[in-house]
Task: structure prediction
Amino acid sequence: MATALHSLSDYDPNEVPNGSEFKIGICTSEWNSEITFALLKGAEETLLKQGVKAENIINRLVPGSFELPSAAQIMFTKRNPDAIICLGSVIRGETAHFDFVCQATAQGIKDVALSVSKPVIFGVLTDDNIEQSRARSGGKHGNKGIEAAVTALKMLAYSKSL
Result:
């Protein structure tokens, strides 16, 4: 398991680029809101800590994780952020629905990133149960929202360096 020996919240703030010049969108799924709103809180706090101005963080909610790719595409068209963080939580159930939603969400987020040539960060938890989701949204394994925010800033710095 990727988080077995690593906390999603551990990072050195001095190794993360300053975000004061960036505008960053966050698309967050309302489904499993206990989890996704904790991810959102972690992402927002990290962006602010790393210098992103509050007025340069665009937050929008979408019904579920499946809608994240189209929400990101629309946000790029309408608001033109430098990067978008997609936050969601898909928890395995008794049907194949989990597999379809996870695959479509991951593929869609990747497709948007390639189509706009800007960072689109996959901050979607795909867990077997609610306990795993809680552990990765502020619990014993940290917060994937923090990791997603750090990734967005590092990818923006990478892009700027080229």
Observations:
- The chain has a mean pLDDT of 94.
- The first strand starts at residue 24 and ends at 29.
- The radius of gyration is 15 Å.
- The first helix runs from residue 33 to 49.
